[in-house]
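I would like you to sit down with the record closing this message with an eye to the fold:
=====
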Amino acid sequence: MKMKCNLILAFVPILLLFLIGTANATFLRAQLVNSDGDVVNDYYVSSSAKAYADAVGANAANDFKLRAYYNVSGENASVWVTFVYKVGDSFTIIADGATSGTYLEQLGSEQTSGSIYYADSPVSLNFRNSYAIFPGHIYAVISDNNTVESTDTFISINSTDGYLVGSYSASDVAGTYDQTTGLVSLTVNGVTGQPNSFNILSEHPSDQFLMVGICTDGYGETCSDDNATAPNVANSLDTSILNPPVTSAVNYRYYVINGMGTQFCIGPNINVSLTTNNSNPDDGDAVLLTATIENLGNVDIDSEFNVRFYDGTTLLDTQTISTLNSDSTTDKTYVWDTKWQTGSHTMWVKVDTTDTIKECNEDNNNASALVDVEVTYSAIVYINDTESTNFPMVGRPYNVTVNVTDSTNASVSDAVIRIVEKNGISVFAPIQAWQEGSTNKSVVSYSIAEVRTNSSGLVSFALIPTGNKLLDVEPYIATYYTGNYSLYLEIYVAGSLKNTISLTVGELTASEPNGQVTVLNNDIVDYVKDVVYDMYAKIKGWLHYS
């Protein structure tokens, strides 16, 4: 994954030994100690000095010394030492000797620690107020004279042997890599000292005592390019890596600031995400899966890699991408048919499953999305034993059978069937319409029959559509007040409405019978209609006509 925004560099304690140069090759190790011989992790002091102190602890006179270890007795003779910031070939001296204008001191008397020898510099080897101003993993210089030369021995001082505590923030170095030139840009845009979070940058905004470089290690020993710089200055540095092949291993480098390194990667980085146009489709719906593939890396991909869509572990489709430049995006899609796929599904997209492309991050090549395919419900309606949703006329008794199944072709038992007649002829609530000022008012009538299916998903009953001729001859009532006449069937499963089926009536005018029919529950239906007939007659008698 390519890092975005600023990166924080903090010194990580790692035991490490480096020897550079040709002189005094038997020197093994160096420490930053005080006059008591204790290792010092030094802190920035925001005082008039505005630098790392050359004394710590309760005794302010405990000035720093450099302790050097070696394996041949007498190597301390005629050896001069000092402290420097160093990255690659760039270094700057950060200590003063006892004599004005000198920066090194001779090692003192030899001491032993087991089979190893060591010697200390005098306590007068102090940090320079105007130079030891930034945190760092510092170096000891071992010289055979009172000058510092590139051929001297530079010893990287381990974190356990003393360092200048603090941290850096820097620009997105990896994001600036140019594969055609091999160059990156590094800007140190934040410097913080400890323990009190001193803003060193504000106190030394332009001092050029930052050694920066692009290196193969985190301490700045082996570097392809380095430079002495100041905060907020853009440094163009060479990685010496040009147009790396994407089918070979990626390259890792460190950008190092005063011996403090942060690793970054040079290579492609494929990231994929998966979206759907419908996460809760009905069984049989088509679901569009969209994979968005990005190259978050800093190297263009010029070799083909695959993109695969899965339903769980079942491969659905394989596609390919031939090229994908750095910081570019492309989409791949697949239309998934959900027929017979009810239930919860984890859909996957996986890219570069053959590991053709070597990436900075191999952990973001898969993405998933959850899709819950809903069971759908339907019904077949039989009117007088004929499959149909149309009643030929109103005012005629019909035998109705409803057969409810789900999308898996299973019969649905105990489903609630509601047949709704809206604005039919109602004894209880006849259609009424009026105006209150400019507002239309009305009574809308609903007649609802409710039945339940048996274990086979079937239910049969008698039904008599009433229609409403009034809406036919006086359509303004329907248009402006109540709405028109309609007849429909609703399916409820476990209390939830699952489907609605429209029913129609061919003729809204009742016709004289041309025979007699027997309907389901005929005796009860016949008795009810006698009661209704009698009730209609009495209602008519109650009504006053003007």
Summary: Helices lie at 200-203, 469-473, 475-482, 522-542. The first strand starts at residue 7 and ends at 10. The chain has four domains: 13-166, 169-265, 270-373, 377-542. The two ends are 87 Å apart (CA to CA).
